[in-house]
Amino acid sequence: KQIMYNGFMKTAFCLIESVLYLITVIMDLEKLDSIPYKYALLAVCVLYGIYRLFREKDRISLLVLIIRVLTAIADWFLLVRVDHYLTGVILFCAAESLYALLVASRKSWILRAAIWLSAGILLMLFREFSPLYLAAAYSIIWLSFNVIDAFKNRQMAAGIGFLLFWICDILVGLFNLGVWTSFTANGNWLFYGPSQIILTAGSYEHEKK
Questions:
Q1: The predicted structure's pLDDT at residue 6
Q2: Please, what is the Cα angle at 20 between 14 and 75, to 5 degrees?
Q3: Phi/psi at 78 (5° precision)
Q4: Per-residue model confidence as pLDDT tens digits over 169-182
Q5: Whose CA is closest to 176, among 89, 91, 115?
Q6: What is Dmax (Cα atoms) for the chain?
Q7: What confidence category does residue 135 fall into, taking pLDDT thresholds of 50, 70 and 90?
Q8: Rounded to an integer, what distance in angstroms lies between the CA atom of residue 40 and that of residue 28?
Q9: Whose CA is closest to 80, among 46, 34, 22?
């Protein structure tokens, strides 16, 4: 009965999120304010996380709920308020680190850290070092490895979710560089919204291998 009920709730979650996502896409095309609906989509992810923790009471459910809360707070700064960028990116770094607990091996953690430290050294050499750039480097490195490790472990839902999240991050970076702003201004959401839905629904399927 619990499995059937979880299946029903997962289907309901995906349907609600699909409707919210469609609304945001239409509003963006019409150049209307879609931020409340976008944040509602993220809030529903948190609510689903609370439900799963209440039902399962296990390590993964707790971990996923913490990730959802960190992500929602990060997006409060980056999506809703559009300020406190460093705080938002650091919260994303924390969320991506927790996601790594679900997909990454010890070897992967060491390699991630080595690349991040190298990136920090390069930033200093080119006199571009700043806490925000260092946090952004951490975020994209951890997210890139999450994509690789998830697919390597055959955690397909997580891999697809991370890949969409990664594409979103690349588009955000392009927007900040002033590249193709007519698309990247809102185009990142085309990938970010589905990534959060998939990561929320799919994170319960597999333990780290």
A1: 76
A2: 100
A3: -85, -30
A4: 999 999 999 999 99
A5: 89
A6: 60
A7: very high
A8: 15
A9: 34
**Count of residues in the chain:** 209
Contacts of 85 (CB under 8 A, 6+ apart): 77, 78, 132
pLDDT in tens, 81-133: 999 999 999 999 999 999 999 999 999 999 999 999 999 999 999 989 999 99
CA separation for the pair 178, 176 (Å, rounded): 5
- Which residue type, as a one-letter code, is found at position 167? I
Q: 97 is written with which tokens?
A: 């680190």
Residue carrying the six token digits 């999240």: 165
The pair of three-digit structure tokens given for residue 17, joined into one six-digit string: 């999120």
Banded pLDDT at 209 (limits 50, 70, 90): very low
- Structure tokens, 152: 């390597």
Q: What are the tokens at 70? A: 């960190």
